[in-house]
Amino acid sequence: MSKQHFKVCLCWKRIFKTRVVEPPLDVRNAFNRFSTSGMMTVDELLRFLIEYQGEKNATKEDAQAIFNSLKHLNIFQRRGLHLEAFFRYLLGDHNLAHPPSQKVHHDMNAPLAHYFLFTGHNSYLTGNQVSSASSVEPIKDALLRGVRVIELDLWPNSKENDVEVRHGGTLTSPADLQKCLQAIKENAFNASEYPVVITFEDHLNSNLRKKVAKMVKEIFGEMLYCNETENLEIFPSPESLKKRVLISTKPPKEYLEVNTVGEEVSENENGTNPPDEGYHDEEEENDVPQYSQIIAIHAGKLKGGLENWLSDDPKKVRRLSLSEQELENATKTHGTKIVRFTQRNLLRVFPKRKRLDSSNCNPFVGWMHGAQMVAFNMQGHGKHLWIMQGMFKANGGCGYVKKPDFLLQRGQNDEVFNPDEKLDVKTFMTVKVFLGEGWHQDFHHTAVDPYSPPHFYTKIGIAGVPADRDVKETGKIEDEWLPVWNEEFEFQLSVPELAVLRIQVLEYDTTEISDFGGQACLPVSELRTGIRTVPLHDKKGNKYKHVRLLLSIKFGAPL
Asked: What is the pTM of this model?
């Protein structure tokens, strides 16, 4: 048994013994139930996978693969797994609560409007919304994490002879549009083969729009998806758009006047209009076919306020953008109309202007009303971004998650789901937090407390619709790198399809804010039952090499 030394002052030290974590009682009982004579064979392990872990489709090859994964350990024996080897398997990557190897399994042949899309906001910014640099690196990073919607703000440069990507009206530095588009082309389909949507916030004159149109066509070539008709009555499916790039922005005004039900107005996030809004000349007429041809998803707001914004034209689908504040206000009076609108059309929700620190909103307000594109600042961190990352671990991490059926259905009298109605409990989820390990390997021994080992506790809860939100926490285990809690919690779920299991480990400090010890967010709809391990991540969403928790997960029907 090793020891750790903590210097308290010049004259003395505190010495703590470190210990080896032991299998919890539930693990020992499961091992004894499915093994004979203190050893678990491949066949017995297979029975454990099927009967205890709920892996109904597990095969003998799966069990053998687990055996093979343990052969490098000194504790492995050919005759079978003894308790310690079985315990190490349960804590290993072959036993994750949500395996990253899960494939795309949602129906991908429905229209785009039937999916939530992993969506970025001001995708080029490296930090805050006021003074940070613009770069292609955040765009690359977002795409490699599975983000499918990239936003670029297009502005004229100081000479008005070229296009810059920047956050207008701020001190943020510009990025080169061509480099941004090239970065999207090179990284678009490394994490997912499903379509990438580029939303342009357009502040350009007609000459620069033509320049953008030419640049887009030259860079993306056959990857660029262009509509065969001027107006789409229904969006194509993600399956039909594999490895295609779609441009979404507001078409030039002259193009809209003939083809829309009502006149459209600017929906730029900073409230400004493009430089040539309301201006007309022959040069701009030539702009219409070139720039409009690259726009696959038309964006814009109809004049007349919220009632008109949410109008559903049966002959044309479009994208509408609302700020998080506009959405919250709209849900108070037009909840069902938003749901109806998003059954065919796309709704993008972007952070309010006050989020200068690149923080994010609660995505469930949008998701519960069917909003497909809840746009997030991916360069930040915090609980809402962790929840977003957890949600889009679903469906193989492809960046598209099929909406629950209740958001897409209509009743006999054409009624739609009402988000304000009280929901019945569909299922109960029970989570038992056994223990955690790995901090002494991934953290310096004085990282969280310079005078002693940490006092870890775990917050565990549900992020979801208001009826499902709940947070509970374990007790605090003092002076221990290998905390053992053995505490069980129950959660009621009315909309498990939208629920995310949120886990955060903190180090208790009586005098300061608790220190961060790791976090994980996982889609409840895809959690595996039984005794499972959950790797923890840092504040930016990067997985630690060793830090993880051992949990038990069960689901049960309400009485």
From this structure: 0.91
State which H helix or E strand residue 341 sits in.
helix 324-341
Say how many Å lie between the first and final Cα of the chain, rounded.
49
Phi-psi category of residue 102: left, alpha or beta, with phi > 0 → left and psi -120 to 50 → alpha = beta
pLDDT digits (tens, 9 = 90+) for 150-183: 999 999 999 999 999 999 999 999 999 999 999 9
The residue length of the chain stands at 559
Residue that the structure tokens 């910014």 belong to:
125
Q: Which residues contact 119 (CB under 8 A, 6 or more apart)?
A: 147, 148, 149, 348, 372, 373, 374, 375, 376
**37-45 — which CB contacts under 8 Å span 24+ positions?**
38/82, 38/83, 39/77, 39/79, 39/80, 39/81, 39/82, 40/80, 40/81, 40/82, 40/86, 41/79, 41/80, 42/67, 42/80, 44/80, 45/81
Dump pLDDT digits (tens) for 387-424.
999 999 999 999 999 999 999 999 989 899 999 999 99
The strand ranges marked E within 326-481 are 346-350, 373-376, 400-402, 427-437, 456-463, 470-473
SS3 58: coil
| Residue that is written with structure tokens 């549900």 in the block | 462
The encoded tokens of residue 281 equal 């000349």
> Sign of dihedral through CA atoms 44, 46, 50, 53?
positive
Q: What are phi and psi of 144, to 5 degrees?
A: -70, -20
Active site residues: 121, 167
Burial class from Cβ neighbours inside 10 Å (0-12, 13-18, 19+) for residue 278 reads exposed
**Angstrom distance (rounded) from CA 502 to CA 383:** 9
